[in-house]
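Hey, resending since the last one bounced:
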Amino acid sequence: MKHSLLTKYECARVLGLRYLQLQQEETTIVVQGNLRGFVIRELLDGKNHLVVRRGMPDGTFCDKCVDELVVPDDIRQQLEYILTYQNNIM
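The C-alpha cells again:
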C-alpha cells in the first residue's frame, strides 16, 4: 500500500480545523490540559480522522483520510519541538 505525504499546508489546515472543533466543543472528547498539545499529538499518533480533499490535474478530486497520510520527517520534528518546548514552559 502506497502512503502519501501530508503537505505542510494540509498539516496546518488539519491542525487548525481540529483545534476549532475541540475548542467549540463539537465533539464528545473532553480534553484535560493543553488543547494545542492534544491536537498535535493526535496528528502525530495517527488518530486524526479528518479528510483531506486533493485536486487532481484532470479536474477530479481525491479524498484521503488524514490517518492514512504520513507526516514528513521535517514537519514531525517541528511539531515534536513545539510539544517539548510547550511542556517545558508550562
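The domain at 8-89 is CATH 3.90.940.10 (Eukaryotic RPB6 RNA polymerase subunit).

Sorry for the duplicate.
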